[in-house]
Design a protein that fits this description.
binds pyridoxal-5'-phosphate; 19 strands; alpha/beta; single chain
C-alpha cells in the first residue's frame, strides 16, 4: 500500500490462513472433506483471496450465505464446489445450475419449487438437505413429534425430479460452549441427525455422499462428528477458544495511525457528549479510525489499543471516523505511529468482550472503507 495513504487498514496473513487450513486438515480423520466457510466476505478477510488460497491448497468445498456471494466467487475464477447455506428464490434455479452452485434445501415446499423449475429448464440442481436438529433456524423439522414427518419429507424431497441430493447437514447451537449442558445438547443434536439419516436410508433407500455437521466448535471439541466433511469458519481464521489446541494463528490485524497529538490541561472534556474529562495534563492522540470503519461505539471509554511500547487507553466517545487515545505514558508514540486495534498483541476478545459481543461480529464489521492488505 502507498505509504502516503496510510490511515486504517486490515493486514490479512494468507500465510497464517494456509497454516490454519493445514493444521485443521491434519487433525481430521482420513478421507474427511474440508469445507471452508467464506460467507460475509470470508468473515471480513476477503472472500476471493481466501477462496483462491483454499482452492489452491486443496479444500473440497466452500460455503457462502447467498447467491450474490457465490457469484462473486465464480466471477473471480473459483471453480470448486460452492454450497449456499441460506435461501435462494427458486426463480434463480437456472443460475444455480449454470454456475454449478449447490443449494441448501430446508423444507419440502422449497424442494418442490426448485424441482419444478429445474424440470421446466430440463436440468438438474445439486442440493444439500438441511435438518433442524435443535438450532431452530433453517431446516426440516425432525425433533420429537416431527420425526416421522421430517423423515418422510426428506425422502419425498430427494425423490423429486430435477434434484440431485448430494449431501445432508445440520448446524449446532452450542458446540463451541463449555459445560455439561452444552455437551448433552450437542450430542442429542448429533444423535437426531444420525437417526434421521438412518431412517431416510432404511425407509426411502436414500443415501447421501456427504454428511456434515461440524462447525468450528465441533471440529475441535467433537472430532467423532467429522463424518464426511467438516465445515469450520471462525477456526480457519484463527479465532475461537480452542485455536490453542491446534496451534492456529489469527489472520487479521486491524491497524490505524495517529493523526495528531495535543496536550490538554486537567478538566478538559473530550469528544461528543463530553463523556471523558482529563484528570491530569494529558497527551492525547487522535486515531484515524471510528465506527464507520467497524470500531463499535459501544466500547467508548472501555478499551485500549496496542501502540509502540504499551497499551493506549481509548478516551471519550468513538466518533464516525476518529477516536482519541491517551498517550501520556507512551511518549515514544508520535504522529503517524501505527496502533494495533486488534491482532496478535491486542486480542480481539478484549474488544468483543467490552462490546458484549463475539469476535465474529467485529470481524464482519470491518467496513469496506478499510483496505485489506495481503501478506
Ligand atoms: C456460519 C456457519 C458455519 C461456520 O460457523 P463457525 O462457527 O464460524 O465455524 C457452519 N455452518 C453453517 C450452517 C453456518 O451458518
Amino acid at each position: 500500500m502507498n505509504d502516503l495513504q496510510k490511515r486504517t487498514w486490515a493486514e490479512i496473513s494468507l500465510e497464517n490462513l494456509r497454516h490454519n487450513y493445514e493444521a485443521i486438515r491434519k487433525s481430521l480423520p482420513a478421507g474427511c472433506r474440508f469445507l471452508g466457510v467464506v460467507k460475509a466476505d470470508a468473515y471480513g478477510h476477503g472472500a476471493l483471496p481466501v477462496s483462491r488460497l483454499l482452492q489452491e491448497a486443496g479444500a473440497d468445498y466452500l460455503a457462502v450465505s447467498c447467491l450474490d456471494e457465490a457469484l462473486e466467487l465464480r466471477r473471480g475464477g473459483i471453480t470448486m464446489p460452492i454450497l449456499i447455506l441460506g435461501h435462494t428464490p427458486y426463480a434463480y434455479t437456472g443460475t444455480l445450475i449454470e454456475e454449478n452452485i449447490t443449494q441448501t434445501v430446508t423444507c419440502l415446499a422449497k424442494a418442490l419449487e426448485y424441482s419444478t423449475e429445474a424440470v421446466r429448464l430440463g436440468k438438474e440442481l445439486k442440493i444439500h438437505i438441511k435438518l433442524d436438529t435443535g438450532m431452530s433456524r433453517l431446516g426440516f423439522l425432525c425433533a420429537g413429534g416431527y420425526f416421522e414427518e421430517g423423515v418422510d419429507n426428506v425422502i419425498r424431497s430427494c425423490r423429486l425430479p430435477g434434484l440431485i441430493p448430494e449431501g445432508v447437514y445440520t448446524h449446532f447451537a452450542v458446540s463451541d460452549e463449555p459445560g455439561e449442558d452444552s455437551e448433552v445438547y450437542t450430542r442429542a443434536q448429533f444423535k437426531l441427525f444420525m437417526d434421521v439419516i438412518a431412517a431416510v436410508k432404511s425407509r426411502g433407500g436414500v443415501e447421501f455422499l456427504i454428511r456434515h455437521c461440524a462447525n468450528s466448535g465441533a471440529t475441535v471439541s467433537y472430532p467423532e462428528m467429522a463424518l464426511d466433511m467438516v465445515r469450520p469458519g471462525l477456526l480457519l481464521y484463527g479465532y475461537g477458544d480452542s485455536t490453542g489446541k491446534l496451534g492456529l494463528l489469527p489472520c487479521m490485524r486491524l491497524v490505524t495511525t495517529v493523526s495528531t497529538i495535543k496536550f490538554y490541561e486537567p478538566g478538559t472534556s473530550v469528544s461528543y457528549g463530553r463523556r471523558f474529562t482529563t484528570q491530569r495534563r494529558t497527551r492525547m492522540g487522535v486515531l484515524a479510525v471510528g465506527y464507520a470503519d467497524g470500531l463499535p461505539r459501544l466500547i467508548s471509554n472501555k478499551c485500549s489499543f496496542a501502540a509502540k511500547g504499551g497499551f493506549a487507553p481509548q478516551r471519550g466517545s468513538i466518533c464516525m471516523d476518529m477516536c482519541m487515545v491517551d498517550l501520556t505514558e507512551l511518549p515514544q508514540v508520535d504522529v503517524g505511529s501505527e496502533v494495533e486495534l486488534f491482532g496478535p498483541v491486542n486480542s480481539i476478545y478484549k474488544l468483543s468482550d467490552a462490546a458484549h459481543t463475539i469476535p465474529y461480529e467485529l470481524l464482519c464489521a470491518v467496513s469496506k472503507r478499510v483496505p485489506r492488505v495481503y501478506e
